[in-house]
Specification:
Elements (H helix, E strand, L loop, with lengths): L4 E8 L3 E3 L1 H18 L4 H6 L1 E6 L4 E4 L16 E8 L7 E9 L5 E8 L2 H16 L13 H21 L3 H25 L3 E3 L2 H32 L3
Parallel strand pairs: 2-8
Antiparallel strand pairs: 1-7, 3-4, 3-5, 5-6, 6-7
Length: about 240
């Protein structure tokens, strides 16, 4: 094939809950659509496809998630990687796909395609894969703000309660309430960051953590509402 081009696209994987069902959907899409779109025989795609499940001290490499016998992942799991490296490079055709789901490092989608029209095909593949992953999208990103966002949030609370301190009769007491509220936000965010990882795997431990986190979240919301609503009223009594 003449005039072949190489195009590479990388995307950060959004916060999501990874289970066998989601992996099966991703795998099914790859097996069903990539042979035609990338002009690679279906048997070659399957032969060069792998999924690696990594625990603390070991890794399991499978040709399909269907071969994974457990209903849920082990509690020690920290990464799942999908790989596909296939193509007829002598004809100018090739696909290199890598999906990394990790609760320790960056989770990303990396696709490199070699064909006559790699950009259009690659972007279409990425869109479809993102649509599939978004079916299990979570709100865990709320508990993993970037350093800049977290700094801006804390700076806002600090500025607000400093102004409160200098402009209101009961500024000192309200400032104390505000300080406690800010500390609580930092404290709960730190706890939730552990209970609600950026990529959560379907494990028995994570299911317990989800229950704990949901109960804490309800309690935290009630605490914030009570503090904001009744805190200033209470300070007037002293």
């Amino acid at each position: 094939m003449n005039n072949t081009l190489v195009y590479r696209v990388q995307r950060k994987i959004p916060t999501l809950h990874l289970d066998k069902d989601l992996l099966k959907k991703i795998e099914l899409y790859i097996f069903k659509h990539m042979p035609n779109l990338c002009e690679i025989p279906e048997n070659e795609v399957k032969e060069n496809y792998s999924i690696t499940i990594t625990e603390q001290n070991s890794s399991l490499i499978l040709k399909s998630i269907d071969f994974y016998e457990l209903e849920v992942f082990p509690n020690q799991i920290n990464e799942v990687v999908i790989k596909l490296h296939a193509g007829s490079y002598s004809k100018g055709l090739g696909t290199d796909l890598r999906l990394v789901f990790s609760n320790q490092f960056s989770s990303k989608l990396d696709l490199e395609l070699k064909s006559q029209y790699p950009k259009e095909i690659a972007n279409g593949l990425v869109v479809k894969l993102e649509e599939i992953m978004n079916q299990k999208k979570s709100i865990n990103y709320l508990f993993h703000p970037s350093l800049l966002k977290f700094s801006l949030i804390m700076a806002f609370f600090l500025l607000y309660f400093l102004l409160d301190y200098f402009t209101r009769p009961h500024g000192i007491r309200i400032h104390i309430v505000g300080t406690l509220l800010s500390i609580s936000i930092f404290f709960y965010t730190s706890i939730f960051a552990k209970l609600k990882p950026y990529i959560s795997f379907d494990t028995n431990k994570q299911r317990r953590n989800d229950t704990i986190a949901n109960n804490l979240l309800i309690g935290f919301i009630l605490f914030v509402v009570f503090t904001v609503t009744f805190g200033p009223l209470v300070t007037k009594l002293f």
